[in-house]
Write a structure and sequence with these properties.
Helix content of chain A: over 70%
Radius of gyration of chain A: 22 Å
Oligomer: heterodimer
Strand order of the largest sheet of chain B: 1-2
Membrane topology (chain A): Multi-pass membrane protein
Number of helices of chain A: 21
Protein name (chain A): Proton-conducting transporter membrane subunit
Largest interface: A-B, 19 and 20 residues
Number of domains of chain A: 1
Strand content of chain B: 5-15%
Radius of gyration of chain B: 18 Å
Structural class of chain A: mainly alpha
Order of helices and strands of chain A: HHEEHHHHHHHHHHHHHHHHHHH
Helix content of chain B: over 70%
Largest sheet of chain B: 2 strands, antiparallel
Number of domains of chain B: 1
Subcellular location (chain A): Cell membrane; Membrane
Largest sheet of chain A: 2 strands, antiparallel
Family (chain A): Belongs to the CPA3 antiporters (TC 2.A.63) subunit D family.
Shape of chain A: globular
Shape of chain B: globular
GO cellular component, one term (chain A): plasma membrane
Number of helices of chain B: 4
């Protein structure tokens, strides 16, 4: 029964937030945080139970699989549930102290819970069409969130975001329809079972291409990434931080989940396709990032670049590489969110997101400089910080599979990532405030304590990924092993 | 849009659409129909009336009257799921009851109908809100 909790709890809190419209601000905020804490608690409980029991399966409406809608949580789902609910919790804490863009409204709280409900649903969906529906729940909330505040610049970003995501949903649904006509089922376990029964006779090229198109736009991989940097820098900063940490990961998660089911061992075509996508995504993202001076745009291009590493794990599709990819997803989600939160703190202090006009943060606020330094190095993957373990496992996996070109591009991209992190460091932290900004009686602003605290929480999580790396890698390894053990998945859900 | 023709028609259309929407809602269990379509129909009827007699007061009054529907609808839909969890085997597990009404006979009622009514109310509330808000000039500053 606990499998339904990640969906029911946010829904209850949507209702609560909407019905508390007339209550005082303090009550609304307490309910908001209570919802986040409850969701984190549920996610951690699921992760613990999954680690003990392997799989948690529930059938909605008590209709047996493959006829009803299956909800299933395995270790990978548990990790993603915990990760996203933690990120949403910290960003919620941050958004309450942001004090701009009218974020402390019941509608905003309800939208955050809606987003969380959609993501949680996508993580535990055991049915492809159900997955699509949860994607839509998530997208509808994100459409409103990305236009939240109604600034003119947001209209531009929102149009791109909405159009691209609707087009991708169209491809996704078309792919699902074609898949249904080819296989006759949409239950993921049943799908995997029939694909294995047919033993390569089924031609799933058209549906997987269409579904890949749908996932590709949502997770912003090459060549469909251009909408992301164009729209992610427009909404209020807490929303950007939330989206950058979680939304693309849902696309990557679904991609790994879906292709691990229909992926047959020894299928060179998918391996090479995903590795090609991974390398091109990494390289194009990082090259475009290096030329940016708007810190949110720069970080957005980096999201694209780092999605490439996660896809690389899918392409290699060995136990080690998948472990690396999952670990990388964990590290990246935390660190990327934190970099956005820190850029918001920098904005509060210097009053600008433009790197050329900002500066002096290291002298004025050394503590924030330290927080940024740790996060930036963790993103690049300097040992012993969190990015290193993920990249190391991916590269080792690549070498073991003799994919040297892709290993080389992964290493090269790391250097360019270091370059652009150093650029933010130099421009915003190390150098002084430029002369022409100083003339108009410039003053440093103040960052509310709550903003800094949320960032500190994420840095602590990043550091604990280092200190607890053995424990975390073991969990990731279990998840990767479960992803490769399709027969076990089929057996648990279909009982055959 | 204050034209007499539309105003004359709008009263009749509103009543007709509301009645038909309930009909569509109830027939939805085994035949085409259901809460979503019924909600759209009901919302359409209310919106036509507001368009015909468009004043600022009517608009804000309608918006205020429709606001609770969303929450009530969500509560009913969630409640039907939780009932299935409490009384049955799983979330959304359909529970059926026989309701004896004197003189009229027995009614076969279940939680799927409750779910549909929740969807109906939520869709009506959201549709009316979205369309009426789109009628205002939105400023992107």
């Amino acid at each position: 029964m606990i499998v339904f909790a990640p969906i029911i709890i946010p829904l209850i809190f949507i209702i609560l937030s909407l019905s508390l419209g007339k209550a005082s601000g303090a009550v609304q905020r307490i309910v908001f945080m209570a919802g986040n804490v409850t969701t984190i608690g549920v996610a951690v409980t699921i992760l613990r139970r999954v680690l003990n029991e392997g799989y948690l399966v529930a059938q909605a409406g008590a209709w047996e699989a493959p006829y009803g809608i299956t909800m299933v949580a395995d270790t990978f789902s548990g990790i993603m549930l915990t990760l996203t609910s933690l990120t949403v919790g910290v960003v919620s804490l941050y958004s309450m102290a942001w004090r701009e863009d009218k974020l402390n409204k019941p509608v905003f709280f309800a939208l955050i819970f809606g987003l969380q409900m959609g993501m949680n649903g996508a993580f535990i969906a055991g049915d492809l069409f159900n997955l699509y529906v949860w994607f839509e729940v998530m997208l509808i909330s994100s459409f409103v969130l990305i236009s939240y505040g109604s600034k003119k610049i947001q209209l531009k970003g929102t149009l791109k975001y909405v159009t691209m995501n609707l087009v991708s949903s169209f491809f996704f649904v078309a792919g699902i329809a074609v898949l249904y006509s080819a296989v006759g089922t949409l239950n993921m376990a049943d799908l995997a079972y029939r694909v294995r029964e047919a033993n390569g006779e089924l031609n799933l090229f058209a549906p997987s291409a269409l579904i890949l198109m749908g996932f590709a736009v949502k997770s912003a991989i090459f060549p469909f990434f251009f909408w992301l940097p164009d729209s992610y820098h427009t909404p209020p900063l807490p929303v950007t931080a939330l989206f950058s940490g979680t939304l693309t990961k849902v696309g990557v998660y679904s991609m790994i989940r879906f292709y691990s089911l229909i992926h047959l061992p020894g299928d060179v075509f998918y391996t090479q396709l995903f590795l090609f996508i991974a390398s091109t995504t990494m390289i194009s993202g990082v090259l475009m990032a290096t030329s940016q001076f708007e810190v949110r745009r720069l970080l957005s291009f980096h999201i694209v670049s780092q999605i490439g590493y996660m896809i690389m794990g899918l392409g290699l599709f060995t136990r080690l590489a998948l472990t690396g990819a999952i670990f990388y997803i964990i590290g990246h989600c935390i660190v990327k969110t934190n970099l956005f939160l820190l850029s918001g703190i920098g904005y509060k202090i210097t009053g600008t997101f433009n790197l050329k006009q900002s500066g002096g943060l290291m002298k004025h606020k050394p503590f924030i400089a330290i927080l940024f330094f740790i996060s930036a190095l963790a993103l690049v993957g300097i040992p012993p910080l969190s990015g290193f373990f993920g990249k190391f496992m991916l590269i080792k996996g690549g070498v073991e599979s003799h994919e040297f070109i892709h290993v080389a591009s992964a290493l090269g991209v790391s250097f360019l990532t270091l370059f652009s992190m150093l650029k933010i460091w130099n421009e915003a932290y190390a150098k002084d405030i430029p002369e022409d900004s100083q003339t108009q009686d410039f003053q440093f602003g103040k960052a509310p304590k709550q903003l800094v605290i949320s960032s500190v929480i994420l840095v602590v999580v990043t550091l604990s990924l280092t200190f607890g790396s053995k424990f975390i890698i073991d969990i990731c390894d279990t998840a990767a092993n479960q992803l490769l053990d399709i027969d076990g998945y089929i057996r648990v859900i279909l009982n055959r | 849009m204050n034209t007499t023709l539309l105003q004359l028609a709008a009263r009749a259309i509103r009543i007709m659409m509301l009645v038909i929407s309930v009909f569509v809602l109830l027939r939805g269990h085994n035949q085409p129909g259901g809460g979503f379509i019924g909600g759209l129909l009901a919302g359409g009827g209310i919106v036509i009336y507001v368009i015909a007699f468009h004043t600022h007061q009517l608009l804000s009054k309608t918006l205020r009257a429709m606001a609770p529907l969303r929450v009530i609808g969500l509560v009913l839909a969630l409640g039907s799921g939780v009932l299935g969890m409490v009384l049955g085997k799983s979330f959304l597990h359909a529970q059926w009851f026989n309701l004896n009404i004197p003189l009229l006979g027995t009614l076969h009622m279940g939680t799927p109908l409750l779910f549909d009514i929740g969807v109906y109310l939520a869709v009506t509330g959201v549709m009316v809100m979205v369309i009426l808000l789109l009628m205002e000039d939105r400023k992107w500053n």
